[in-house]
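Weekly structure sync, notes
Attendees: PL, DS, HV (note-taker this week)

Item 1: tRNA (guanine(9)-N(1))-methyltransferase
DS walked through the input record. Source organism listed as Chauna torquata. Sequence as pasted into the shared doc:
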Amino acid sequence: LLSLCYIFQMDTTQESYLDLFPLDAIVYLTPDSENVLEDIDPKKVYIVGGLVDESIHKKLTLRRAQEQSLQTARLPIREYMVKAINTKNYHSETLAINQVFDVLSTYYKTRSWPDALKAGVSSGKGYVLPEAEK
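Item 1 (cont.): predicted structure, written out as tokens:
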């Protein structure tokens, strides 16, 4: 049995990502982007926002990225998942930081968006993979 271990290094700094990386290398991830993240480019730097209340800050991350002239992308939730029938009629593509990280790291390992989205998008968001709906 072969087990792979992935280690992620994290550095903290007071400097802005705008000062650390070329603008054309930065992709700001926001659920409000019109651009779908189709693959992870190892030459790009992906910015994961950290907003808590999606209703008060609607489109804040998109506006911030546009003001900084950055590329934007959203996770392909609509492309691979369907809205689940639920009593609250609640559906949200806004994920917590740890959920986005789970999606991205699983995709990086598996190269499968369905597997990645299954790993990171909780059923409480109102989206499921098509086969899970049945």
